[in-house]
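Z., the sequence and structure:
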Amino acid sequence: MKSPANHPTQLTGLPILASQSQGWENILVEQFQQPPGEARCHYSDEHTIYLSLAPRPIRLLQIQGGKTHSGLYAKGDISVIPAKMPIFARWDGDDHCLQIRIASRFIQSVARESLAMNPDQLELLPEFRTRDPQIESIGMMLLCELKQENLGGRLYVESLANVLAVHLLRQYSAVKPRLAIYEGGLSEPQLLQVLEYINEHLNQDIKLADLAQLVGMSQFHFSHLFKQSMGKAPYQYLLQQRVERAKQLLKQTNRSIMDIALECGFNSHSHLSKQFRQFTGMAPRAYRTN
């Protein structure tokens, strides 16, 4: 939605939060807070979404694709800037926004694999100021994940990125695709194969692409069918299994909690403790002694 800190081409301070260090693929999320100012940006390989988080509306002038727009931007307003489109923006108040950049090649692969679209004919349309509850919801979930620094949430972020890509293609592309939704869940052999893979790789960085590839379908459709089969999303199941493994190791071994955390795919003692409390209502140490 606006113009924050975009490119080295001009201005703007550094983001107050950024996902670069999180290892997220195909999507970059940055939170900006900045005083009145202006900026230019031009991303050749990424589509950009701006979501206003400003507590009070600010006046924004935006020039994109040779067209000039101006008006008040309020919390929840969204702009969509296709890749390769230069943009200039000037804002007259304290700006607070979320910038989401999503790789063009990722959008193309989702178009091909999930929507049977020809990626060469793909064209996203710019949007100056709109309301889109689904993009706003995804944006806030990504921001929450960014604040929590949950490395175990990588699968979660990949799921959100896929949903966002499909939504952009359905709502903001020049040619509207038809999305076939498969019902009935995964077959039993498919499900067993996926669950076995998760069980054997709990201590590793499991990617949504790896799970989808096991059963030969797009990440978007895999997530949908897995949830139908299991009643929960892949990332929720993965977290649950990591906590279950930790419970086993806490009761059956004398290994340190840090060792157990790493063995179960958590990146630290505190990360294990946080997720463990959410699932069991108690800390790992208390669970071990009870």
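The first strand starts at residue 17 and ends at 18. The CA atoms of residues 38 and 90 lie 4 Å apart.

Let me know what you think.
H.
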